[in-house]
Amino acid sequence: MEVIVGKTAGFCFGVKNAIENTEKQIEKEKNIYCLGELVHNKQVIEELEAKGVIFINDIKEAKNKVIIRAHGAEKQIYETAENNNVEIVDLTCPKVLFIHKLALEYAEKNYYIFLIGKKEHPEIQATKSFCGEKYTIIQEFEDIAKAVEDYQSTDCNKILILAQTTYNLNSFNKIVDEIKNKIANSEIIEIKNTICNATQNRQEETIEMAKVVEAMIVIGGKHSSNSIELYETAKEYCENVQFIETIKELDLQKLNQVNKIGIMAGASTPEKSINDVLTVIHRDFK
Ligand code: SF4
Fold first, then answer.
1. CA of 127 to the centre of ligand 1 (A)
2. Which terminus, N or C, of the chain has the lesser number of Cβ atoms within 10 Å?
3. How far is the CA of 107 from the centre of ligand 1 (A)?
4. Residue 203 in contact with residue 228, Cβ under 8 Å?
Protein backbone atom coordinates (compact mmCIF):
# COMPACT_ATOMS: atom_id res chain seq x y z
CA MET A 1 0.00 0.00 0.00
CA GLU A 2 1.25 3.48 -0.85
CA VAL A 3 0.93 5.93 2.04
CA ILE A 4 1.09 9.71 1.63
CA VAL A 5 1.45 11.86 4.74
CA GLY A 6 0.53 15.53 4.34
CA LYS A 7 3.50 17.89 4.50
CA THR A 8 1.29 20.32 6.41
CA ALA A 9 -0.07 17.69 8.83
CA GLY A 10 0.31 18.36 12.57
CA PHE A 11 1.23 21.28 14.79
CA CYS A 12 1.09 24.74 13.25
CA PHE A 13 3.31 27.59 14.36
CA GLY A 14 0.74 29.02 16.81
CA VAL A 15 0.07 25.69 18.53
CA LYS A 16 3.76 24.84 18.75
CA ASN A 17 4.47 28.22 20.27
CA ALA A 18 1.66 27.80 22.84
CA ILE A 19 2.76 24.30 23.90
CA GLU A 20 6.50 25.08 24.06
CA ASN A 21 5.96 28.21 26.10
CA THR A 22 3.55 26.46 28.46
CA GLU A 23 6.18 23.79 29.05
CA LYS A 24 8.77 26.50 29.79
CA GLN A 25 6.37 28.01 32.33
CA ILE A 26 5.90 24.65 34.07
CA GLU A 27 9.66 24.28 34.37
CA LYS A 28 9.75 27.61 36.20
CA GLU A 29 6.78 26.96 38.47
CA LYS A 30 4.50 24.01 39.06
CA ASN A 31 0.71 24.33 38.99
CA ILE A 32 0.22 27.14 36.54
CA TYR A 33 -3.32 28.06 35.45
CA CYS A 34 -4.52 28.02 31.86
CA LEU A 35 -7.83 29.58 30.85
CA GLY A 36 -9.69 27.02 28.72
CA GLU A 37 -8.06 24.18 26.80
CA LEU A 38 -4.67 25.34 25.51
CA VAL A 39 -5.38 23.62 22.19
CA HIS A 40 -8.26 21.42 21.05
CA ASN A 41 -6.60 18.06 21.54
CA LYS A 42 -7.44 15.75 24.46
CA GLN A 43 -4.08 13.96 24.42
CA VAL A 44 -2.09 17.21 24.57
CA ILE A 45 -4.30 18.49 27.40
CA GLU A 46 -3.93 15.29 29.44
CA GLU A 47 -0.16 15.43 29.06
CA LEU A 48 0.00 19.04 30.23
CA GLU A 49 -2.34 18.30 33.14
CA ALA A 50 -0.03 15.51 34.24
CA LYS A 51 2.86 18.01 34.20
CA GLY A 52 0.97 20.40 36.47
CA VAL A 53 -1.11 22.74 34.30
CA ILE A 54 -4.47 23.52 35.92
CA PHE A 55 -7.17 24.21 33.33
CA ILE A 56 -9.87 26.62 34.47
CA ASN A 57 -12.93 28.04 32.76
CA ASP A 58 -13.30 31.21 34.82
CA ILE A 59 -10.55 33.81 35.14
CA LYS A 60 -11.64 34.40 38.76
CA GLU A 61 -10.24 30.97 39.67
CA ALA A 62 -6.70 31.98 38.61
CA LYS A 63 -4.09 32.84 41.21
CA ASN A 64 -0.88 34.79 40.47
CA LYS A 65 -0.43 33.79 36.84
CA VAL A 66 -2.63 32.58 33.98
CA ILE A 67 -1.93 31.37 30.46
CA ILE A 68 -4.05 32.69 27.61
CA ARG A 69 -4.34 30.02 24.95
CA ALA A 70 -3.63 30.21 21.20
CA HIS A 71 -7.31 31.02 20.43
CA GLY A 72 -7.06 34.23 22.46
CA ALA A 73 -9.36 35.61 25.14
CA GLU A 74 -12.08 38.22 25.52
CA LYS A 75 -11.11 41.83 26.24
CA GLN A 76 -12.80 41.62 29.65
CA ILE A 77 -10.53 38.73 30.67
CA TYR A 78 -7.47 40.98 30.45
CA GLU A 79 -9.27 43.61 32.54
CA THR A 80 -10.35 41.10 35.22
CA ALA A 81 -6.84 39.65 35.43
CA GLU A 82 -5.39 43.11 35.92
CA ASN A 83 -7.96 43.99 38.59
CA ASN A 84 -7.21 40.73 40.44
CA ASN A 85 -3.42 41.16 40.16
CA VAL A 86 -3.10 38.04 38.04
CA GLU A 87 -0.17 38.10 35.63
CA ILE A 88 -1.04 37.08 32.08
CA VAL A 89 1.19 34.84 29.97
CA ASP A 90 -0.32 35.66 26.62
CA LEU A 91 0.13 32.77 24.18
CA THR A 92 -2.55 33.98 21.77
CA CYS A 93 -1.35 33.21 18.26
CA PRO A 94 0.03 36.39 16.62
CA LYS A 95 -2.37 35.83 13.72
CA VAL A 96 -5.33 35.99 16.10
CA LEU A 97 -3.88 39.06 17.85
CA PHE A 98 -3.69 40.71 14.43
CA ILE A 99 -7.45 40.14 13.94
CA HIS A 100 -8.18 41.67 17.37
CA LYS A 101 -6.13 44.70 16.34
CA LEU A 102 -8.06 45.06 13.07
CA ALA A 103 -11.41 44.71 14.85
CA LEU A 104 -10.50 47.40 17.40
CA GLU A 105 -9.14 49.75 14.77
CA TYR A 106 -12.14 49.49 12.41
CA ALA A 107 -14.74 49.56 15.20
CA GLU A 108 -13.24 52.88 16.29
CA LYS A 109 -13.70 54.16 12.72
CA ASN A 110 -17.41 53.16 12.94
CA TYR A 111 -17.24 50.26 10.51
CA TYR A 112 -19.90 47.55 10.88
CA ILE A 113 -18.07 44.23 11.25
CA PHE A 114 -19.16 40.95 9.66
CA LEU A 115 -17.27 38.27 11.53
CA ILE A 116 -17.30 35.02 9.56
CA GLY A 117 -16.80 32.04 11.83
CA LYS A 118 -18.36 29.57 14.23
CA LYS A 119 -20.46 31.39 16.82
CA GLU A 120 -19.44 29.24 19.78
CA HIS A 121 -15.76 28.87 18.87
CA PRO A 122 -13.45 30.41 21.52
CA GLU A 123 -11.55 32.38 18.89
CA ILE A 124 -14.76 34.05 17.67
CA GLN A 125 -15.94 34.60 21.25
CA ALA A 126 -12.66 36.42 21.90
CA THR A 127 -12.62 38.38 18.62
CA LYS A 128 -16.19 39.64 18.98
CA SER A 129 -15.23 41.35 22.24
CA PHE A 130 -12.90 43.61 20.22
CA CYS A 131 -15.61 44.53 17.67
CA GLY A 132 -17.50 47.02 19.83
CA GLU A 133 -21.31 46.98 19.60
CA LYS A 134 -21.76 46.93 15.83
CA TYR A 135 -21.04 43.48 14.48
CA THR A 136 -22.76 40.26 13.41
CA ILE A 137 -21.29 36.78 13.37
CA ILE A 138 -21.93 34.92 10.12
CA GLN A 139 -21.53 31.21 10.75
CA GLU A 140 -23.08 30.04 7.50
CA PHE A 141 -24.61 31.27 4.27
CA GLU A 142 -28.10 31.46 5.81
CA ASP A 143 -26.92 34.10 8.32
CA ILE A 144 -26.08 36.67 5.63
CA ALA A 145 -29.56 38.22 5.20
CA LYS A 146 -29.87 38.90 8.94
CA ALA A 147 -26.32 40.34 9.04
CA VAL A 148 -27.15 42.77 6.25
CA GLU A 149 -30.37 43.78 8.05
CA ASP A 150 -28.41 44.33 11.26
CA TYR A 151 -25.93 46.52 9.41
CA GLN A 152 -28.72 48.55 7.75
CA SER A 153 -30.31 49.30 11.12
CA THR A 154 -27.18 51.16 12.32
CA ASP A 155 -25.58 54.52 11.47
CA CYS A 156 -22.55 52.76 9.88
CA ASN A 157 -21.82 53.33 6.21
CA LYS A 158 -18.84 51.02 5.86
CA ILE A 159 -18.37 47.30 6.42
CA LEU A 160 -15.34 45.27 7.43
CA ILE A 161 -15.30 41.51 6.79
CA LEU A 162 -13.08 39.33 8.98
CA ALA A 163 -12.78 35.55 9.20
CA GLN A 164 -11.97 33.00 11.89
CA THR A 165 -8.41 31.82 11.22
CA THR A 166 -9.56 28.24 10.68
CA TYR A 167 -12.65 28.93 8.56
CA ASN A 168 -13.15 27.03 5.31
CA LEU A 169 -11.81 29.08 2.38
CA ASN A 170 -14.49 28.03 -0.15
CA SER A 171 -17.29 28.87 2.28
CA PHE A 172 -15.63 32.21 3.07
CA ASN A 173 -15.47 33.11 -0.64
CA LYS A 174 -19.12 32.14 -1.19
CA ILE A 175 -20.26 34.23 1.79
CA VAL A 176 -18.22 37.24 0.64
CA ASP A 177 -19.70 37.01 -2.88
CA GLU A 178 -23.22 36.92 -1.46
CA ILE A 179 -22.57 39.91 0.81
CA LYS A 180 -21.36 41.83 -2.27
CA ASN A 181 -24.58 40.85 -4.07
CA LYS A 182 -26.71 42.14 -1.24
CA ILE A 183 -24.93 45.43 -0.62
CA ALA A 184 -25.65 47.79 -3.52
CA ASN A 185 -22.36 49.69 -3.26
CA SER A 186 -19.66 47.08 -2.77
CA GLU A 187 -16.99 49.79 -2.56
CA ILE A 188 -17.94 50.37 1.07
CA ILE A 189 -16.88 46.81 1.93
CA GLU A 190 -13.37 46.11 3.11
CA ILE A 191 -12.49 42.42 2.95
CA LYS A 192 -9.73 40.97 5.08
CA ASN A 193 -9.20 37.30 4.46
CA THR A 194 -7.82 36.46 7.89
CA ILE A 195 -7.90 32.69 7.39
CA CYS A 196 -4.36 31.78 8.36
CA ASN A 197 -1.87 30.41 5.81
CA ALA A 198 -1.32 27.29 7.86
CA THR A 199 -5.06 26.51 7.62
CA GLN A 200 -5.31 27.48 3.97
CA ASN A 201 -2.28 25.39 2.93
CA ARG A 202 -3.55 22.41 4.88
CA GLN A 203 -6.99 22.65 3.26
CA GLU A 204 -5.44 22.91 -0.21
CA GLU A 205 -3.14 19.96 0.42
CA THR A 206 -6.10 17.95 1.74
CA ILE A 207 -8.01 18.57 -1.51
CA GLU A 208 -5.04 17.57 -3.67
CA MET A 209 -4.48 14.45 -1.62
CA ALA A 210 -8.16 13.44 -1.47
CA LYS A 211 -8.37 13.62 -5.26
CA VAL A 212 -5.64 11.02 -5.83
CA VAL A 213 -6.03 8.50 -2.98
CA GLU A 214 -8.56 5.74 -2.46
CA ALA A 215 -8.91 6.36 1.28
CA MET A 216 -8.05 9.13 3.70
CA ILE A 217 -7.49 9.32 7.42
CA VAL A 218 -7.89 12.72 9.07
CA ILE A 219 -6.44 12.81 12.58
CA GLY A 220 -7.55 15.49 15.01
CA GLY A 221 -9.46 16.41 18.15
CA LYS A 222 -13.23 16.00 17.97
CA HIS A 223 -13.67 19.66 19.01
CA SER A 224 -10.91 20.97 16.77
CA SER A 225 -12.52 23.28 14.25
CA ASN A 226 -9.70 23.06 11.70
CA SER A 227 -9.63 19.23 11.93
CA ILE A 228 -13.40 19.01 11.37
CA GLU A 229 -13.00 21.29 8.34
CA LEU A 230 -10.29 18.98 6.94
CA TYR A 231 -12.58 15.99 7.35
CA GLU A 232 -15.47 17.78 5.63
CA THR A 233 -13.16 18.93 2.81
CA ALA A 234 -11.68 15.46 2.28
CA LYS A 235 -15.20 13.94 2.06
CA GLU A 236 -15.99 16.17 -0.89
CA TYR A 237 -13.27 14.52 -2.99
CA CYS A 238 -12.88 11.03 -1.53
CA GLU A 239 -15.56 8.48 -0.63
CA ASN A 240 -13.58 6.61 2.00
CA VAL A 241 -12.60 9.06 4.76
CA GLN A 242 -12.15 8.36 8.47
CA PHE A 243 -11.94 11.08 11.12
CA ILE A 244 -10.12 9.78 14.18
CA GLU A 245 -8.64 11.27 17.32
CA THR A 246 -6.40 8.34 18.22
CA ILE A 247 -5.34 5.05 16.66
CA LYS A 248 -7.97 3.20 18.75
CA GLU A 249 -10.70 4.62 16.47
CA LEU A 250 -9.15 3.51 13.18
CA ASP A 251 -11.32 1.03 11.29
CA LEU A 252 -8.80 -1.16 9.51
CA GLN A 253 -11.55 -3.03 7.62
CA LYS A 254 -12.18 0.12 5.61
CA LEU A 255 -8.60 0.00 4.35
CA ASN A 256 -8.81 -3.50 2.91
CA GLN A 257 -8.44 -3.50 -0.89
CA VAL A 258 -7.05 0.07 -0.76
CA ASN A 259 -3.83 0.68 -2.69
CA LYS A 260 -3.21 4.31 -1.94
CA ILE A 261 -4.00 6.11 1.29
CA GLY A 262 -3.59 9.73 2.44
CA ILE A 263 -3.01 10.91 6.01
CA MET A 264 -3.76 14.45 7.13
CA ALA A 265 -3.81 15.92 10.62
CA GLY A 266 -5.14 19.10 12.22
CA ALA A 267 -3.10 21.97 13.62
CA SER A 268 -3.34 20.68 17.20
CA THR A 269 -2.58 17.02 16.45
CA PRO A 270 0.67 15.79 18.03
CA GLU A 271 3.22 13.93 15.94
CA LYS A 272 2.74 10.86 18.13
CA SER A 273 -0.88 10.46 16.96
CA ILE A 274 0.29 10.52 13.32
CA ASN A 275 3.12 8.05 14.02
CA ASP A 276 0.75 5.66 15.83
CA VAL A 277 -1.40 5.47 12.70
CA LEU A 278 1.62 4.99 10.44
CA THR A 279 2.98 2.18 12.62
CA VAL A 280 -0.28 0.23 12.43
CA ILE A 281 -0.69 0.75 8.69
CA HIS A 282 2.88 -0.34 7.96
CA ARG A 283 2.43 -3.35 10.25
CA ASP A 284 -0.86 -4.53 8.75
CA PHE A 285 -0.63 -3.53 5.11
CA LYS A 286 2.99 -3.88 4.02
S1 SF4 B 1 -4.08 27.66 12.90
FE2 SF4 B 1 -3.06 29.57 12.29
S3 SF4 B 1 -4.02 31.11 13.58
FE4 SF4 B 1 -4.50 29.17 14.52
S5 SF4 B 1 -2.89 28.83 16.01
FE6 SF4 B 1 -2.22 27.87 14.11
S7 SF4 B 1 -0.96 29.42 13.06
FE8 SF4 B 1 -2.18 30.46 14.63
1. 14
2. C
3. 23
4. no
